[in-house]
Amino acid sequence: MKVLIAGGGIGGLTTALFLHKAGIEVEIFERAENIRELGVGINMLPHAVSELAGLDLLPDLDAQGIRTHELIYANRFGQVVWRELRGIEAGHDYPQISIHRGKLLGLIYKAVVERLGKEAVHTACRVTGFAQSGGGVTVEICGHDGALSTVSGDVLVGADGLHSAVRSQLYPEEGSPIWSGIMLWRGCTLWPAWGDGQTMAIAGGNVAKFVFYPIATASGRDHTRLTNWAVMAKTGDSGTLPPRVEDWSRPGVLTEVLPFVRDRFHLDFVDPAAIIAATGGFYEYPNCDREPLPRWSFGRVTLLGDAAHPMYPVGSNGASQAILDARSFSDRLSSAASIEEALADYDAERRPKTSEIVLANRRGGPEGVIDMVEARAPEGFENLDDIASFDEREAVVRGYASLAGFAKTRRGHDQCGRP
Ligand SMILES: Cc1cc2nc3c(=O)[nH]c(=O)nc-3n(C[C@H](O)[C@H](O)[C@H](O)COP(=O)(O)OP(=O)(O)OC[C@H]3O[C@@H](n4cnc5c(N)ncnc54)[C@H](O)[C@@H]3O)c2cc1C
User: Fold this and answer.
1) pLDDT tens for residues 213-233?
2) Whose CA is nearest to atom 4 of ligand 1?
3) Of 26, 55, 222, 369, which sees the most CB atoms within 10 A?
């Protein structure tokens, strides 16, 4: 059996590793001229790290990333609204890992080259369409010179991201992604370590949020971390078109982001305006998603990762859910009685779960806990419990964790002072 994968991102390349491990032949077709280490920070939740550990990638993840020890939610004055341990400290078998997205892609790609051979990945090959019959699937490829060719296999996986060509052939009427009206600016730079150098913070509220977490150690500099920051702010109306087309690599403009943080945030661990100004180049991305689909798998063709379930980048689920898809797809394909049955089973297993996360992210994800507190106490609070009870705050955060499949009943070390 030969599987053709459209897209050499985290989802497509991880799928290739799982299929190879299961003894299934794979070819990957990536639009870009090279597999480049693009992006800034990304988080992987313990269940996704567990899958990558099963591919023997944990040592590489540890070498490139940071094991996130704690997550703190705060208002824009830095008052803690919720704090919880993460990863192993929270009772999981595997850590949560914060890492540079490019480094994550790079280490997965290196494993693909070592295990499948460089020739399994065809770069500068944009998938433009497909046709399937009872006996196989034929994929049309556009090369860098514009020449069209075809390749045949038994299965096609559309892991070609937000603007998936495979999805648009399956759903030709769907149109553009849906913008929430929120712009996300993100960047990373070397910065003094905060606390234990393994803590992630999300501060702010309904107008703007500021995200801050370390993604790598700096060689020879114990008290410095490559630190990821992000600002999320409402700049348009939900459902309208973003000012510029969605593109993860679009450079951000300093004068557009600074007004959302200057004089608004008063945090004791970082001055958001200072770290943004100190970052050489950074990116903007309009938070967008698509409606959950009624079906991913059609005969021998299916969708995976952002092509299947693009979601707002809150709650650390973008890469994590793509990795869980990859494992599920490979398991089903290597065990079902037929290809069609395997793809239908994968669809039945992963689509409902990820659809729920897409919708939960629209409601604000776990970060909704700071929105709730800010709405009730916009100028800060003296006694948090008077604003929102512990149980109320826990319901927001834990409800999301359980939906995303990484909830733990253990409460961690302390939640704003309580055991
Ligand atoms: C350049 C880039 C930078 C990113 N940076 C960040 C970040 O900093 N933080 C973060 O949280 N998330 C980032 N993301 C998104 C994140 O990687 C995904 O949400 C998540 O990893 C799911 O991965 P995926 O493989 O499904 O999709 P993607 O990571 O989007 O990968 C899809 C791949 O398919 C390729 N492709 C697209 N169309 C075609 C086609 N027609 N034929 C063949 N190949 C095609 C793309 O070039 C890409 O390599 C970034 C994505 C990209 C593409």
Assistant:
1) 999 998 878 899 999 999 999
2) 39
3) 26
